[in-house]
Amino acid sequence: MLTGDELEQIPDLSGQSLYGAEVKRIPLLTEEQQENYLAAAREGGDREARNELVLHCLNWTRMKAVETYQKREPPHTDVMDLAAHGSLKLLEAFPTALRARDPIRYLMSTAALEMRRYCIYRDPLIQRTKGLAPRPDHPQTVSYDQGATPFIERVAVS
Predict the structure, then answer these.
(1) How many whole angstroms from its chain centre is CA 113?
(2) Which long-range CB contacts under 8 A does 67-73 form with residues at least 24 apart?
(3) Nearest-angstrom CA–CA distance, 98 and 71
(4) 155 pLDDT more than 60
(5) Selection from 104, 98, 69, 103 nearest residue 85 by Cα
(6) How far apart are CA 62 and CA 26, in angstroms?
(7) Could you report the per-residue pLDDT of 88-140, keeping only the tens digit for each?
(8) How far is 47 from 89, CA to CA, in rounded Å?
């Protein structure tokens, strides 16, 4: 939990800023610690080991959410939506990741892929079926800020 002094140093107290400050405080695991936690998680499903490995991935997931948001500019999704979705997918993918050659890389790539998929399938107002390419006549969302003529002006001109 952030202290009062740390909170005063944050110029913007939005959810994204607070989450970023909290996640940056989580110490990264060394290679040896990762191997120990992976062994414990693989052997007996150690809950603490799982939690430490997932926490290790959270800062990277947050940074990837910001990158994905800047790259794709989803009109109906916030950075925190992407970070939350990526974090959830980390937890869902954990049992499968333990069978992978590099579980940490597997978790991070799963989070990145799922955040991109979120922008494609969950962001549009008219959502697509996952796995199907959009039809050429699929409606696009155009915001007023992007130069679209408002409906009222179009009716008045007609």
Answers:
(1) 9
(2) 68/112, 68/115, 68/116, 68/119, 72/116, 72/119
(3) 30
(4) no
(5) 69
(6) 12
(7) 999 999 999 999 999 999 999 999 999 999 888 887 666 666 666 666 776 66
(8) 17
d(CA 57, CA 20): 13
pLDDT tens sequence across 49-63: 999 999 999 989 999
Q: Which residue has the tokens 């990158």?
A: 67
Mean pLDDT of 32-42: 92
Q: What is the chain's length?
A: 158
The alpha carbon of residue 134 and the mean position of all alpha carbons in its chain are separated, in whole angstroms, by: 23
Write the CA distances from 103 to 62, 68, 98, 113, 155, integer angstroms.
Answer: 18, 22, 6, 15, 57
The amino acid occupying position 72 is R
Outline where the chain has alpha helix (H): 4-9, 15-24, 31-44, 47-72, 79-97, 103-117, 151-157
Q: Read off the amino acid at residue 41.
A: A
Closest to 85 in 3D by CA, of 133, 53, 129, 119: 119
